[in-house]
């Protein structure tokens, strides 16, 4: 495992137009299901505070549901609307800020991955661009154009609330096969209105969301956008097949006002396209000109979606890529679930003290 000297690039400050951070580490958004009645409580606030106390540069919260009856699945998944939940989030922000940290909520709608009858609103039907599940099965009717426009406004309202209650940025969850990604992906978006068409036209829903959020938060507030090629049901799925397509996919999102792209991959070291070592984040930085966050099995020898556990792994490859400016920031997921002090330990060179990820980390707010 790496020593203190070689992890230096991870602990250089990050400066950008709208967001400055003390180092390059980001806590990856991770759904926990510890918010009773969909309201984050003091234990959730303390959980995030522990990461802030231990030098995490930017915390991105677990996905939190925008104001729509079918935005989340489950009674303990936090939402981002209504007085109780927003007060809970305001306490989370307060704790993190008191500990000197920065935090962004991840704004989320699960779309067609919701099962009929799921809590908290058992009667709410799953919604999606064409009423298709990720496997392409017809579940219900496509959203009407007006319903899509109303969803755009729900994201905007969440963005306004995030700024009002003191968050430092927002992250829009456009990855992994959830609602926004269902618009991106040809398998789930067969629409013929302005929200459908080729892979560039299918960015329209996300573009309108980013524009509407920007309208609410103003020019100076950072908007992070997370996207992925892979989907929860298909790790080989592709939105784009080559750098040219990636550029055409990113361009409308850049013009809409994205400040930072969070490029979700399951293994950060894998090249995205043939003929170059660059990963998805590396290509996105090169083609969009925007700062990027990379992610995927940092410090671990097993990949996300295998929840059984993973040992620790060297950070050398990661640090090399960071040092070469392939990406700007590094999100850490499972390592930080198990070990709130992961970043601080790495900074201090205490790599033998790092706790490996095991599935118990999912049962408790360490
Ligand atoms: C328990 C758990 C919950 C997750 N929930 C979310 C989520 O709410 N939103 C999201 O974008 N990604 C989510 N992810 C994916 C992580 O953000 C991250 O991309 C993934 O775990 C890979 O990073 P890692 O290998 O460092 O764990 C989750 C991952 C885990 C392990």
From TrEMBL:
Molecular functions (GO terms): FMN binding; oxidoreductase activity
Leader sequence segment: none
Pfam name, any one: Oxidored_FMN
Gene3D superfamilies recorded: Aldolase class I (3.20.20.70)
UniProt GO cellular component terms: cytosol
Superkingdom of source: Bacteria
Stretches for region Disordered: 117-137
UniProt cross-references to InterPro entries, sorted A to Z: Aldolase_TIM, OxRdtase_FMN_N, Oye-like
CDD domains reported for this sequence: OYE_like_5_FMN (cd04747)
Residue ranges constituting the NADH:flavin oxidoreductase/NADH oxidase N-terminal domain according to the UniProt record: 10-352
Protein name in UniProt: 12-oxophytodienoate reductase
Organism: Halobacillus mangrovi
Record lineage: Bacteria, Bacillati, Bacillota, Bacilli, Bacillales
């Amino acid at each position: 495992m790496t020593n203190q000297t070689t992890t230096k690039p991870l602990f250089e400050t990050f400066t950008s137009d709208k967001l400055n951070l003390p180092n390059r580490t980001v806590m990856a958004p991770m759904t926990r299901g510890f918010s009773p009645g969909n309201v984050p409580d003091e234990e959730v606030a303390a959980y995030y505070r522990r990461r802030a106390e231990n030098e995490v540069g930017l915390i991105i919260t677990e996905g939190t549901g925008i104001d729509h009856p079918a935005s989340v699945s489950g009674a303990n998944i936090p939402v981002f609307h209504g007085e109780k939940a927003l007060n809970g989030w305001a306490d989370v922000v307060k704790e993190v800020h008191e500990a000197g940290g920065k935090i962004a909520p991840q704004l989320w709608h699960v779309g067609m991955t919701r099962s009929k009858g799921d809590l908290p609103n058992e009667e709410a039907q799953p919604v999606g661009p064409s009423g298709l599940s990720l496997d392409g099965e017809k579940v219900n009717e496509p959203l009407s154009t007006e319903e899509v426009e109303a969803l755009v406004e729900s994201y905007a309202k969440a963005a306004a609330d995030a700024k009002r209650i003191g968050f430092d940025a927002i992250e829009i969850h456009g990855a992994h096969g959830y609602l926004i990604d269902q618009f991106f992906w040809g398998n789930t978006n067969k629409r013929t209105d302005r929200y459908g068409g080729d892979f560039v036209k299918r960015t329209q829903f996300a573009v309108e969301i980013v524009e509407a959020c920007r309208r609410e938060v103003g020019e100076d507030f950072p908007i992070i956008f997370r996207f992925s090629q892979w989907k929860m049901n298909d790790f080989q799925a592709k939105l784009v097949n080559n750098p040219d397509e990636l550029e055409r996919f990113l361009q409308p999102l850049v013009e809409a006002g994205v400040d930072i792209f969070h490029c979700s991959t399951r293994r950060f070291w894998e090249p995205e396209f043939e003929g170059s070592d660059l990963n998805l984040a590396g290509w996105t930085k090169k083609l969009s000109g925007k700062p990027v966050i990379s992610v995927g099995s940092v410090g671990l020898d097993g990949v996300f979606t295998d929840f059984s556990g993973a040992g620790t792994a060297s950070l050398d490859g990661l640090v090399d890529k960071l040092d070469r400016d392939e990406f700007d920031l590094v999100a850490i997921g499972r390592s930080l679930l198990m070990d709130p002090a992961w970043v601080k330990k790495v900074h201090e060179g205490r790599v033998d003290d790092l706790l490996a990820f095991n599935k118990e980390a999912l049962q408790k707010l360490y």
